[in-house]
Amino acid sequence: MSGTRFVLARPATLRQEVKKSIFLANAANVSSPDAALDFVTAAADASATHNCWAYRIGQQYRFNDDGEPGGTAGKPILQAIDGQQMDCTAVVVTRWYGCIKLGAGGLARAYGGCAAECLRLAAKTEAVEMAQVVFALPFATLPLLHARLAEFGASIADERFDASGAELRLTLPAVRIGALRHWVTDATRGRSSVRMVD
Question: What is the enclosing helix (H) or strand (E) of 80?
Answer without folding.
Answer: helix 74-83
